[in-house]
Amino acid sequence: MSDTTHSHSHPGATPRDKEKIPLVLVRAMFGLALASLILVAYARITDRPMVGTPDPSPVVIERSLILDGDRTGAVAVLDGVSRDVITTSDVDKNGFISTIWRVLGRQRMQAGAAEAAPVILRRHESGRMSLLDTGTGKIIQIVGYGPDNMAAFAKLLD
């Protein structure tokens, strides 16, 4: 009696061959990477404007702040001049302040910057808001994080 089970693999194929990525996907991946490089090179050679960066806009109002957090993620927002507590991250949908504090902490650690350096919260003439980290010099654009998150920072300027 002959064996009637049929194998869908090629003669000499091992079970490990089934784990390999299909050649068509590997080629597609390299094609996508090559297309990306060509697009970036074209943009650089033709001096296309950087459309992903916000337009420069004058600062209407700014405030120096210190974000003072602890390991639990609770963050107190202090006035950068008087050192008075303005608010905390656990009231009125201010949880986004804790997120920004963690991002700043990671960036400062990588840059070797002071952990307690103040940040400058700015509202621009265009309506967008940004946060300048005086410790690293990096700017975080607040506008792209949704209305509740923007409101948490807008209250600090009003």
Keywords:
3 helices, alpha+beta, 158 residues, 6-stranded antiparallel β-sheet, 2 domains, 32% helix
Rough shape?
extended
Strand runs, count: 6
Which percent range describes the beta-strand content?
15-25%
Question: What is the total number of structural domains?
Answer: 2
Strand order of the largest sheet: 3-2-1-4-5-6
Cα-atom Rg, whole angstroms?
Answer: 26 Å
Give the helix level as a range of percent.
Answer: 25-40%
Q: Which structural class should the secondary elements be placed in?
A: alpha+beta
Task: Give the integer mean of the pLDDT values.
Answer: 84
N/C terminus separation: 88 Å
Low-confidence stretches: none
Question: What profile does the largest beta sheet have?
Answer: 6 strands, antiparallel
| N-to-C SSE string, H for helix and E for strand | HEEEHEEEH
User: How many alpha or pi helices?
Assistant: 3
How would you describe the overall organization of this protein?
This protein has three helices and six strands. The chain is of the alpha+beta class. It folds into two domains: 17-45; 59-157, no CATH class. The longest helix has 23 residues, at 23-45. The model has no long low-confidence stretch (mean pLDDT 84).
